[in-house]
Amino acid sequence: MHRIDPSDEHFMSIALDLAREAARLGESPVGAVMVRDGMILGAGFNTVERDADPTAHAEMIALREAAGKSHDWRLLRTTLYVTLEPCVMCVAALLHARVPRLVYGARDHRWGGAGSLFDLAHDPRINHEIEVVSGVMEAEAAELMRQFFRQLR
């Protein structure tokens, strides 16, 4: 079991607000914030549909913004908060950026790359490992996804 920091729920609530904004725009409701030393370096929500871009996941947007603000692709001493377990693409990007900590809400049993379907965060073949904390505000994140997809049907 990995440690849950007292600020995890605070930053996850911000990610949930971003996910709600994505849902309002007709996007899958996923939000993400990249934090270093208690400050948000990057934030994003899914814009795959709007941008017609399969890489426009919340995590990727938050990573790009954080790297831009940091003027460094290495995002050391950061934590990414995301409402849904990142996919393989997003976990690979976190590994490349040397992000040391990931906190997510709901598991993604269909696409999850940080423990549910795949576990790239702890793959011994990779020279970097990510501390993963799952289930932070999981009920809210999962319900947001259920509501969104229920409305689509």
C-alpha termini separation: 37 Å
Tell me how many strands there are.
Answer: 5
Q: Report the order of strands and helices.
A: HEEHHEHEEH
Query: In percent terms, what proportion of residues is strand?
Result: 15-25%
**What oligomeric state do these chains adopt?**
single chain
Most strands sheet? 5 strands, mixed
The chain-level mean pLDDT equals 95
The number of helices is: 5
Q: Report the uncertain regions.
A: none
What is the overall silhouette?
globular
Structural class: alpha/beta
> Spatial order of the strands in the main sheet?
2-1-3-4-5
Question: How much is the radius of gyration in Å?
Answer: 14 Å
Helical content class: 25-40%
Topology, element by element:
Elements: H1 8-24, E1 31-36, E2 39-45, H2 48-51, H3 58-70, E3 78-84, H4 88-96, E4 101-106, E5 131-134, H5 138-152
Parallel strand pairs: 3-4, 4-5
Antiparallel strand pairs: 1-2, 1-3
Helix pairs in contact: 1-5
Task: Describe what this molecule looks like in 3D.
With about 150 residues, the protein is of the alpha/beta class. Helix content is about 40%, strand content about 20%. The protein has five helices and five strands, in the order αββααβαββα. It has helices spanning about 10-25, 50, 60-70, 90-95, 140-150; strands at about 30-35, 40-45, 80-85, 100-105, 130-135. Strands 2-1-3-4-5 form a five-stranded mixed β-sheet. β3 (about 80-85), α4 (about 90-95) and β4 (about 100-105) form a beta-alpha-beta unit. The longest helix has 17 residues, at about 10-25.
